[in-house]
Write the structure tokens for this entry.
Amino acid sequence: WLDAIVMPMYASLFAGGCFLYLIRSRGANARRLFMFAASVPLSIYWTLQYQDKYTHSTALTTQFTVAAVIVALSIVFLLLALRRWSLPRIRLWFWLGCLTYPLYLTHAKAGHNVYQALGGATWPRMWLVLGLVLLVSIVLAVLVERRICPALHEWLDRTAQRLLAKLGRRQEQRAPALR
């Protein structure tokens, strides 16, 4: 049950991303850099525990490649967080960033269930599911995240303000960054 709560396969990747965010937004310090650095070998360890389910290989060269990809991506993301390297200023990066959460929501369980429900050869099935997951993620990013969520937040704010007014209390100003 602890594995289900902590999800060790993903925990170090998630924590590493959190520390990269803190490094980027609040600056690098020894503690943040150390915690990010600690997340990298943990990510390698846990990824190697599960990688054969995805690569269908237990060969040492496959394990080395998986570890090298994690190290390389960690270096790239750290350089980006430290602002030592930057991506070209194009809107594509914004939209790819908008897809990360919807992809997170749809790829594993839903994508796997669709994959299992489809019959046929492995590769065409995989490409079809990948296309469907991307399509659903784009719809969620554009329709829900960019249109419905802002309208829902405004409605909730107005409703809360009316309720507070009826209770004779006034709403404290929220910081704009939290909106």
Remarks:
- The radius of gyration is 21 Å.
- The chain has a mean pLDDT of 89.
- The CA atoms of residues 79 and 85 lie 5 Å apart.
